[in-house]
Design a protein that fits this description.
Length: about 60
């Protein structure tokens, strides 16, 4: 998936996610949205029907 950010011709900023364009008033808002989106995309995801991962705790 292509994620890009660029200035809008009407002022403000555009975050482009594939074919979708999301407008933002400030560069900071756009960058924060893009950071969070990348974080969520890169997070581990379990496939439907797969066993839940076991949490192993170390003894103290």
């Amino acid at each position: 998936m292509q994620l890009r950010m660029h200035p809008s011709t009407k002022g403000g900023w555009i975050v482009q996610v594939g074919a979708y364009r999301i407008p933002f008033h400030t560069e900071r808002e756009g960058r924060e949205y893009l950071r969070k989106l990348r974080e969520r995309i890169e997070a581990p995801h379990a496939l439907p029907g797969s066993p839940k991962p076991r949490i192993i705790r170390q003894a103290r």
